[in-house]
Amino acid sequence: MSLEKSTKFKNIFFDFDGVLAESVNAKTEAFRELYLSYGKEIADKVVDHHINHGGVSRFEKFKIYHNQFLGVDLLQEGVNILAQKFSDLVLEKVINSEEVKGSVDFLNKYHKSVKFWVITGTPTDEMNIIAKARQIEDYFIGIYGSPKNKKYWTEFLIEKHDLKREEILFLGDATTDYEAAQFSKLHFALREHDENKSIFKDYKGLRFKDFLELNLAIENNLS
């Protein structure tokens, strides 16, 4: 059974980094670069936290890192300055990052029969720029990012579009994706890559390495 023939999934929520694009490492290295001036030990702590809390808004992470690692309560102005520096470092790299294998073909094949949305920790305005530059924006009914979190957006979309929870599949690679799917009682599929292997080592649910595997995974596990 392919996704197209399945009656189970009529809606898919996609995370972006690490799910549609191989862009996770670009953001990891941007966090390292921003905090390296405070020393390698601080930068390593920042990177470790970032990897283990994928999908959390960068605005929240800057507050956490300054408070926990530097003993500084960062004001909103400081958060905004760091966020702009971060965006300057990663935007072009994310736009030009490789697609997760088969993702664009998947979007092109199914977007007329299955409804697609993006739910991401990236700021909404920035994600719209990225989607437009990558020429994938027309595949999605909507793109939703920070400052609202993923649990907010799953519930918002379910209510706004009167979606049935059992007909929604959330494709994610981060703990925030999994937690949002659990919170809203949605099906979840984990996109595996090098940076999340240890985090999800005990995860027993649906997994896929690329979109060529996704239909097979759906058939074997959820059809």
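The above is record 1. Record 2 follows with the same two-line structure.
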Amino acid sequence: MRFEWTQWPGSSVHISFVENGRKPPTLRFSRGIDRAFGIAGTADSFERQYREMKNGNLLEGFPEYVKYEGTAAEIRLYEIGIVPGLLQTPEYARVLADNAARRGAITPEQAEERVSFLAKRQAAMERTRLPTLLVVMDESCVRRQVGGPEVMNAQLDRLVQFAELPNSVLQIAPYDIGERRTFDLPMNLLTMSDLSVIAYAESQLRGHVERDTAAVLPLLTAYHQLQAEALPQAASVAMIKQVRKGTP
């Protein structure tokens, strides 16, 4: 697609350089082009292409988060709908990535990268000083069937094994806590070795790392409140085993 200089108020020389690959596009530039062509917020937007070029098939902010995750002393996770990545079996992760590729959300090559990247994140948890992993999962994470019975049963077995680790706590937030659920979106909270806390949250389009203490502490409080409402670990494991057996 050729740009008509009259359609966008930027420098024609700058646009020409971007077209010819002599300069990389910026986020501001991409958004300006989207406004000029009326495609802002669409699947074909230049902003989306910019973010894909910058982060590969990872959401903006996520690579930065992973760097902190790999050295965190304590990791708190809350997830809705799917098992958290650090707890996923390779088969479960593969089903999710392949499905995204079938929908056209990512390419088959990006699906491979996604599975490989997750394996590296999981491997980073096996270090000399093991991090404490505190995980609260919405009940939907274990009720939602992913990949058929064989894949899902192996994943549920993996969760039971995770709960037995000395550095882990696994809790299920049951449906019946209703409005007492403190988060409407997944939330990651990292406590670093210097006791600073970092938060990471995602929307459908991008992720955001928050390091400001004033913004993060209320999220930490909300996580503690969620843990209080969630099932204890023993009851959570019992629920997982019931789902594994196919009982309500």
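The chain has two domains: 12-55, 62-89+124-245.
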